[in-house]
Amino acid sequence: MSETQVKVWFQNRRTKYKRDRNREAEVRDSKAESLAACNILRILQHQPPRAPFSPNFLPPPFTF
């Protein structure tokens, strides 16, 4: 192989390595986001139901 071919081979190898690392990071991030969403849903499902929000609801007045 010529010197130019060797340089191109290494350049392609580095590019493939970086592309694969980026894909792995994206998969890892999406799994983390999915896990976080599952944890939030689990927490929300175990909380007692709350009264629905009413725009007319006013909190009790603050007293000293």
From TrEMBL:
Q: Which UniProt keywords apply?
A: DNA-binding, Homeobox, Nucleus
Task: Please give the InterPro entries that the UniProt record associates with this protein.
Answer: EMX-VAX-Noto_Homeobox_TFs, HD, Homeodomain-like_sf
Query: Where found, per UniProt?
Result: Nucleus
PROSITE patterns tied to this protein: HOMEOBOX_2
Q: Which domain of life is it from?
A: Eukaryota
| One Pfam short name | Homeodomain
The name this protein carries in UniProt is Homeobox domain-containing protein
Q: Which residues form the Homeobox domain?
A: 1-20
| Annotated region of DNA binding | 3-21
Q: What is the lineage of its organism?
A: Eukaryota, Metazoa, Spiralia, Lophotrochozoa, Mollusca
